[in-house]
Amino acid sequence: MTRYIRHATAFGVVLLTALLVHTAWLQVLQGPSYGGNPANRRPTIARYEQPRGRILVGGRAVTGSRDTGEQLRYERTYTQGPLYAPVTGFASQRYGTTLLEHAEDRVLSGTDPMLSAFPLWNDFTRAQNPGGDVVTTLDPAAQRAAYTGLGARRGAVAAIEPTTGRILALVSAPSYDPAELSGNGPAVTRAWNRLNSDPAQPMLNRAVRQTYPPGSTFKVVTAAAALDSGVVTDLDEPTDSPDPYTLPGTTTRLANEAEDCEDAPLRYAFEFSCNTVFAKLGVDVGVAGMRAAAQDFGFNDRGLRIPFSVAPSSFDTTVDRGQLALSSIGQYNTRATPLQMAMVAAAVADGGQVRTPYLVERTTRSGGDPVATAGSRSARQVMHPSTAERLQELMTDVVTEGTGRSAAIRGATVGGKTGTAQHGVGNTGMPYAWFVSWAQGRGDTAPRVAVAVVVEDASARRGDISGGGTAAPIAKSVMEAVLHTPPAR
Amino acid sequence: MTEAGTAVSTAQPPAPAVRLARRRGVELSLIVLAVLLSVYGYCAVGLAKHGTLPPGAAVYGAGLAVLALLAHGAVRLRAPYADPLLLPIGVLLNGLGLVLIYRLDLETPGERAAPIQLVWSTLGVALFILVVLVLRDHRWLQRYAYVCVVAALALLTLPIAFPAVNGARIWIRVGGFSIQPGEFAKVLLAVFFAAYLAANRSALAFTGRRLGPLQLPTGRVLGPVVAIWLLSVGVLVLERDLGTSLLFFGLFVVLLYVATGRIGWIAVGLLLASAGAVAVGWLEPHVHSRVQDWLDPFASIRAGQGPGQVAQSLFSFAAGGVLGTGLGLGHSILIGFAAKSDFVLATAGEELGLAGLSAVFLLYGLLVERGYRAGLALRDPFGRLLAVGLASIVALQVFVIAGGVTGLIPLTGMAMPFLAQGGSSVVTNWAIVALLIRVSDVARRQYDGTVAP
């Protein structure tokens, strides 16, 4: 019998070995793949187990975290949700993250290995880093000015610092409170459905994710191309352009809202926004020249990240001469985000240099030690400095005596360009009122701010060229806010 | 009792020349270690969940220590030669089980299972002490073999009269307490099997027809085997309890083999078992779905219905990795239903990791090995078969449920010995340890330096 008991013992050893080998396989070899299974809630639970890092504007946190004690424990809160929604986005247990909450999620949620002083040690102890902070470049006063300026109207404002590319304001209206989407209760679902079915699209970030026909504000680009290519050499020399202008290859006659546009010199045409002059100038520069100029400014760039992605602004490169004429006055297939037009204004203000805009000054550990800083960005010379100087002159004229007089600020040099873009089938849609501008205080050594404002439902009557009526005052208040703030560095 | 004692002593060989050391001091120090480990686990849970020591830490530690020391006292008094490892392993596993259930209780504030489990553990230790004190010699049980089998059958059939709980008719509910009589039946059946086989092993081993290399049993002695097989299938069909029937059958096959050494029995047994399992697997939807879950635990996820219990259990083990998340820091509660009972091992796997889980398996392995060792050292066939049977119950049960929750074999509802929530199970396991203590005491007391026959 002893032998058989030994056999039974051997059988027991087989069972034990099977268990040990199987659990080793399960826990060590299969572990990572099961951990990544979408039905496994552990990564989600771990993600919300600690307060999320903060997003700071002007040294103050605009986000917070609330301990719910539930399984997905900490929920996001926002101190001024609608004001900063186009920057922060939302961080929802149910619907994920967007915008900065998404782009900087690894820092905010604490998973970025850079947050740890000893990365491998954390892997060993399974400790989680506290969420890091994201310090933005925003100017709270400018942001507030833009938000109140837009009020109940649909539109967007983008403001950047021309010498650095720091984004000072990014506002989209109507906005929403991202705090409504924090958590995963039924109220969150209701809020999500309501926001998504709202025809006003409050969750659409119009400043960077929506493109508009830029209308006459695009004439800054056309003027730059005409001056740089030598098509125009003297601002005050007649341009030999008819009024009305028959689009090449068609019988369509392009007319003006402004008067005295026939053969008008560039200065007059810019100041009073003569469509005929700029349409002809665009055709004279040619498709290649116009395309190069537009793309230098940032049009057709699909890769811009601030750090979240920006919808590409477009300048159609496969146009005939008639379409090129329309494209050159910001119509046809030319479309731009407000941020793109702010970049155009900034390039003029900063001597013809375009800087990649950015929104994150630095990311830090929860204690404040920097993890990553924006550093110095390379600049791209997109036009000759003398061209920029002459464009500054033209834009300043617009504000001092042209269509943009309502943007003038006492004690500061302000340059601007108005625009009204028609859209929709047969131009039946609401027109978009545009204003792009830049400003430099009297004591400043460099331009402080470049702004682009678009107001969708401009109460301006159709055909009104003066984006100056509705958009310019908003730009003015944003510029004033920036000029009143002492320089950051 | 006294009569039995004298009968035994007359049957004993002359007093052995060499006596083994009693090793009670070793047992005591291991018990202290087991209690300290359990209290440490309890404190670790509290520190991880609330950052403070749990309020009842001292009471819990004192209670466990008192129980363990009482049991130790009984062993010292009445089974001084018993194997010194058995009791500490029981204390450590029971203590760890209480820690795991307490830890899971924190996730389900509405259902506190640890206090009830502590009550049952106390009852289990009381039964242990009773068995060690009263049962002076295991051979006394041999005379009550048929009482045991009748009692076992009665206990097994009792739950049929009660409503099914979660698809299985294995519970009887009295007041707030639910009892699983099948648990107690295991020990009684082991006693019966050991007695029956000890008496009939010659007839089973040496009669019958040869068929090639196999020696098949004769029809006359096949009767009881078929009866046991029918019992297993009956339990399976009537109570929908695959685990228990598997355990009974496996236990019987192991004991049959140890008693007779005939491979033919194993062949017949496996044939009958697989025929029964396949038939039931296809016919019984409850069992069929378990097999499906085993073959493809993630099917429900792909079907968009979320992870099932087995999938959650696998996630839990996988999350543990080598070192585990630490007590109180895992999320095995996601398993949901039966997380504290059948799936309690997943919590050990997630929070203690492969290292802790292997340690737990090795503890069970050690417990089983000590049982087999006692069986090897004993001289009487009943005692040997009883020791092997009791150890095999633990071995098979651990394998069936641990294999089930880790996806090695189809899941069958069973309690992890000592760890799982379930009063009947804890009490039964303490009875098993008590009987092993008794047989090991006899085995080591009569040791005379020679190898047993």
Automatic annotation (TrEMBL), chain A:
Question: Which residue intervals make up region (Disordered)?
Answer: 364-385
Q: Which InterPro entries match?
A: Beta-lactam/transpept, Beta-lactam/transpept-like, PBPA_dimer, PCN-bd_Tpept
Name of a matching Pfam family: Transpeptidase
Do you know which SUPFAM superfamilies this protein is assigned to? beta-lactamase/transpeptidase-like (SSF56601)
Penicillin-binding protein transpeptidase domain: which residues?
155-480
Chain ranges of the Penicillin binding protein A dimerisation domain: 52-134
Name assigned to this protein? Penicillin-binding transpeptidase domain-containing protein
What is the species listed in this Swiss-Prot or TrEMBL entry? Streptomyces tropicalis
From TrEMBL, chain B:
| Localization annotation | Membrane
Q: What stretches pass through the bilayer?
A: 28-47, 53-73, 85-104, 116-135, 144-164, 184-206, 218-236, 352-372, 384-409, 415-437
Q: Which UniProt keywords apply?
A: Cell shape, Membrane, Transmembrane, Transmembrane helix
Q: What is its main location?
A: membrane
Looking up Pfam families in the UniProt record yields:
FTSW_RODA_SPOVE
Highest rank taxon of the organism: Bacteria
Q: According to its record, how does it sit in the membrane? A: Multi-pass membrane protein
Q: What is this protein called?
A: FtsW/RodA/SpoVE family cell cycle protein
Naturally occurring in which organism (per UniProt): Streptomyces tropicalis
Cite the source lineage.
Answer: Bacteria, Bacillati, Actinomycetota, Actinomycetes, Kitasatosporales
